[in-house]
Amino acid sequence: MTNDRLAKAIGRLDQALARVERASDRVAARPDPEFARLVQRHARLRERAQEAIRAIDRLTGAA
Q1: Cβ-based burial of 42 (10 A; exposed 0-12, middle 13-18, buried ≥19)
Q2: What is residue 28's predicted lDDT score, i.e. its pLDDT?
Q3: Most CB atoms within 10 A, among 1, 38, 44, 63?
Q4: What is the total count of domains within the chain?
C-alpha cells in the first residue's frame, strides 16, 4: 500500500470513528441494554482500529 493510499485509509477510519462517536453522544442518555452493548462493541472496535494504525505506523516507519 502506498503512503497516499495508507493515509486515505487512516483518514476514512478516523472519519468513521468520529461518526460513531457523534451518534453515541446523541443517544448516550438513553438507558437501553442494546445501546450499552453497542457502546462496548464500539470501544473494542476503536481499540482494534488504533492497534491496526499503530501496526501500520510501525511497518511504515512512522512510529
Answers
A1: middle
A2: 62
A3: 38
A4: 1
